[in-house]
Amino acid sequence: MKTQSISALAAAGLLVMGATASRIALAEGPHSVSANIGAVSNYMWRGQSQTDNGPAIQGGLDYAHESGFSAGTWVSNVDFGDDTNYELDLYTGFGGSINDDLSYELNLIYYAYPDGRDLDFSEIGASATYKWLTAGVAYTFYGQADDADGVADDEANYIEGDLYYHASLDFELPYELGLSLRGGYYDFRYNDGGNDYAHWGVTVSREAGDFGTFSLNYDQVGRDTYDDDPKVWVGWLKEF
């Protein structure tokens, strides 16, 4: 589920979650709008496949104001082994730069699964970027699942009180290549830590002009109660 999707992190090469990368101005002025479309061989979010290791088509639309305010929506197909077939994200945020090396971002995201049952949830998050290092935290303040009773060891319901910590290192390499090293830790409110897990991954990406951005990605979960097989997948993203 979610927003590590084709976008917000696309600039760093992560072709997997919402859509908030570069924006193209509608006209000279304070407002800008951008759109994106992409494809991935496996929709990975926070170390776990959202498509049962299958491919996904994804896309979104974003608005931004020169003040730092932004809002958008993003959609992707998913496969949770039931009748849930797609995810629709709605998000807004505010960010800015403190100086040339330090910036910040605050965001609010609603993850919707219109054809699913009791799956929707919402997060508020904050992150800071210093040069090539980004770190942040997301807090789940709403979840349709009332509790997590009966949740299997390799599953998770997203309910009020969950915390997700994340960090990434992003570098520019020669030949217009990008390198992103990332990791995260999910601290669930229920099950006394029995569903908590860490994950990590690497992305190498390359911009190809009008052909978009291509990426080669590796992800892994660090807990054997989940699917901890290494995941290697490819992605493509085109922004307009």
Structural classification: mainly beta
CATH C-level category = Mainly Beta
Distance between the termini: 25 Å
How many alpha or pi helices?
0
Protein name: TIGR02001 family outer membrane protein
Keywords: Signal
InterPro entries: CHP02001
Signal peptide: 1-27
Question: Nutshell version of this structure?
Answer:
It contains no helices and 17 strands.
Describe this structure in words.
A hairpin with an 8-residue loop joins β1 and β2. A 12-stranded antiparallel barrel has the order 4-7-8-9-10-11-12-13-14-15-16-17. The protein has 240 residues and is mainly beta. The chain is globular and about 45 Å long. The protein has a single domain (5-239), classed as Porin, CATH 2.40.160. The two termini are 25 Å apart. The protein has no helices and 17 strands. The chain has strands at 5-6, 15-16, 24-25, 31-40, 44-45, 48-49, 56-65, 69-77, 86-97, 102-112, 121-130, 133-143, 163-173, 177-187, 197-207, 213-221, 231-239. Keywords: Signal. Residues 1-27 form the signal peptide. Pfam families: Gcw_chp. This is TIGR02001 family outer membrane protein.
